[in-house]
């Protein structure tokens, strides 16, 4: 099914499996850069009871592990850091690639997941995470 929003194809137009394949290819390409952040990612994940692979996947998808950033900012200078924290909603903590910043963004992620879980308690984990 293809849905259109304001004349554009929405992200939901692409199948879930095709999306997973793209995520895997991107993550494989980013693995060398991700190694630099392995210890902070694992520490943050352990403290927040998250899978470190989830944090790494978000970092890979949002900023290509910093490859797409200019001094931590996206091209429009609206999002900051490895996990692309929106400047409209939040004031970023720490340097764009610091453990402190990864922790801030991951904490926001946990809060968001918990909100979805509260609204949709009958959904399974994959549905809630998606």
Automatic annotation (TrEMBL):
Family: Belongs to the glycosyl hydrolase 23 family.
Acetylation found in the keyword field: no
Transmembrane segments: none
Enzyme class: hydrolase
Any one of the GO BP annotations: defense response to Gram-positive bacterium
Keywords of this entry: Antimicrobial, Bacteriolytic enzyme, Disulfide bond, Glycosidase, Hydrolase, Secreted
High-level lineage: Eukaryota, Metazoa, Chordata, Craniata, Vertebrata
Domain of life: Eukaryota
Reaction(s) catalysed (UniProt annotation): Hydrolysis of (1->4)-beta-linkages between N-acetylmuramic acid and N-acetyl-D-glucosamine residues in a peptidoglycan and between N-acetyl-D-glucosamine residues in chitodextrins
UniProt GO MF annotations: lysozyme activity
Keyword Hydrolase tagged: yes
Subcellular location as annotated: Secreted
Species: Grus americana (Whooping crane)
E.C. number(s) listed in UniProt: 3.2.1.17
Cellular compartments per GO CC: extracellular region
Name used for this protein in its record: Lysozyme g
């Amino acid at each position: 099914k293809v849905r259109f929003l304001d004349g554009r194809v929405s992200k939901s137009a692409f199948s879930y499996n095709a999306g997973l394949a793209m995520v895997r290819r991107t993550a494989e390409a980013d693995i060398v850069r991700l190694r630099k952040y392995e210890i902070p990612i694992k520490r943050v994940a352990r403290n927040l009871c998250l899978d470190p692979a989830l944090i790494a996947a978000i970092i890979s998808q949002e900023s290509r592990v910093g490859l797409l950033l200019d001094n931590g900012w996206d091209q429009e200078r609206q999002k900051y850091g490895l996990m692309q924290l929106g400047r409209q909603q939040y004031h970023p903590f720490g340097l764009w690639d610091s453990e402190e910043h990864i922790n801030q963004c991951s904490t926001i992620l946990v809060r968001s997941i918990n909100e979805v879980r509260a609204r949709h308690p009958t959904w399974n984990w994959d549905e809630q995470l998606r």
